[in-house]
Amino acid sequence: MDTSRRFDKEEGGCPSIQCEANRDVLCHSCAEGVVTAAHRVSLRAVEPCLFGKGGVCCRNCNMGPCQIIEGVDTMKGVCGATAATVAARNFCRMVAGGSSAHMDHGRGAALAFLATARGETPYEIKDTIKLRNMALILGIDPAEKDNRDLAIEVGTKLLGEFGQQEGTLAFMKRAPKARQELWSQLGILPRGIDREVVEIMHRTHIGVDQEHKSLLFQAVRCALADGWGASMIATELSDIMFGTPVSVRSKVNIGILKNDEVNITVHGHEPVLAEALAMASNDPEIVKASKKVKAKGINLAGVCCTGNEILMRRGIPIAGSFIQQEVVLATGAIEAMVVDVQCIMQGLSPVADNFHTELITTSDKARIPGATHIQFDEHRALEVAREIIMRAINRYPERGKHFIPVHQMDLVAGFSHENIDYTLGGHFRASYKPLNDNIINGRIRGVAAIVGCDNYRVLEEVHIELAKELIANDILVLATGCAATGMGRAGLLSPEALNLAGDGLKEVLETVGCPPVLHMGSCVDNSRILIAATEMVNTGGLGTDISDLPVAGCAPQWMSEKAISIGQYFVSSGTYVVFGPGFPTTGSKVVTDYCFKEMENLYGGMWDMADTSDDFANKMIDKINQKRQDLGLDKKKERVLFDMAMRRELEATALLDVGCHGPEG
After folding, report:
1. Which of 3, 67, 148, 404 pairs with 95 at a CA distance of 20 to 30 A?
2. What is the pLDDT of residue 659?
3. Interaxial angle between packed helices 613-630 and 462-472, expressed in degrees from 0 to 180 and rounded to the nearest 10
4. Domains of the chain, CATH where assigned
């Protein structure tokens, strides 16, 4: 099978080739002999195993692997395991795998935060207001404590939750009261972060838990320990260390690479490495060294979710998403690609070998054959960052034939849940009330989240077409991860995209000055969406729980186990979540029905599945309309004429509020 050919300009069949920038690179003579995932997918003769795809292939012991067919006695496992048991076990292990990635990320953030609080790193505590707010949430009195001591106390408390064995996680108390009561009643409050993963791995071992509902019960508890635990810890501590994101203009797509600068791309998920590189790249000695090799400076660019992290906080442009990582290297214009953990393709190494590019791994958890390894340590962050950048500078004179496409797009990012609050009301009236009010009056129909990976096996750019359909129907879209990057390439993260929005949504967003798709960060930052949904509930007028809100979520091109964990913690928090392509339990109708139907009775949220952008849009809009109907928002309200008694009552209520909360709220 010849994998060395270039793609033809007219060729389709893969989302990497459908993207114009990617197509231009892979069709250019510079990419001759380069093999990427686009080649591997388009030339792969074997389709995915139907048993594995449906979650009914069991290899948890050495009597198998066993392929199971539901309802056929002769097609159970050797041990007698049914399709429901096997599908539930495999689903649980996906949740455990995805959760553990976020949990290890969160632990790393907590350790770096503590080291920073003790003065052992070059980082600093940038957002002291958020530090003090976090202390209050954790039950720590910040009064009369300096920022250093308070940060140590906050970091120690949150780090302790990873090994905690009893009790529950502090951030669970940030959810709406009704949601907390439901979790408590069902007995699914996580007891500790790491404990829930270990219990899943035990339950799914041969001969332990064999009842699908019991297994999925633990998947819920583990996913909650991810979303309301580890992921939220990672996001909040990163914000305190590196700054809570605010609206920032930047650019996205491969065209942000520079012909006359040293191009360094940082790829992965953990912001400590990217922050150090950003700090070091502005060092006068580094700039001077780049000029010695006839470069104009250092061009740092992001790939995948590390790109989203430094985009949100520093406005550093993103060169590409998950499916673009090899294509970025195939330009021949990268001096060094620096990677940490998660979503990093092994195929990067042979692509880099075609050029002068050095692939540098920085975590002992993520080694790649053929790459240079330079271990990153936050205690020596700037020293390691300078070493990496100097290696890239020394590569610049070796750059040969290369091709940088023209394609790049303006975007606005930085929509943390705090910045949404500020955008809607400013410093003195920061509130989600304008959002709730406009959902109630019908200008905005509801809110949808489009999150997750992009995927070489999806032929349609579902993220983009779905987002266009949703905003045209007056639905505000929140985006994270590679889904956000893809929508950015299509111009949907720019205020100019309001021309594609429905009249009601357009009117509101033009008033507050933001695009119709809000970039909320990396995949670990989906915890920001949980807090935003809670703020909508607490603001009032849209029910008492997240499950009451006219909202829906989706991951239309999911690829990673992390996406399954994210989807499950949203379902468990009361949200309708649609996934595609496929769903990992379809080999068992029993388990799929439980996820797609029975979970709604338990949690108020449920899973669903769709294929095309139209399917996703129809299901999500129908669910949002149903939630509006349940809230009575589909009925035209009679105009109320206030008499003097009613006006006096309003004035008295307003005075009471000021008395209770003070002039600062």
Report:
1. 67
2. 42
3. 40
4. 68-239 (1.20.1270.30), 254-398 (3.40.50.2030), 412-630 (3.40.50.2030)
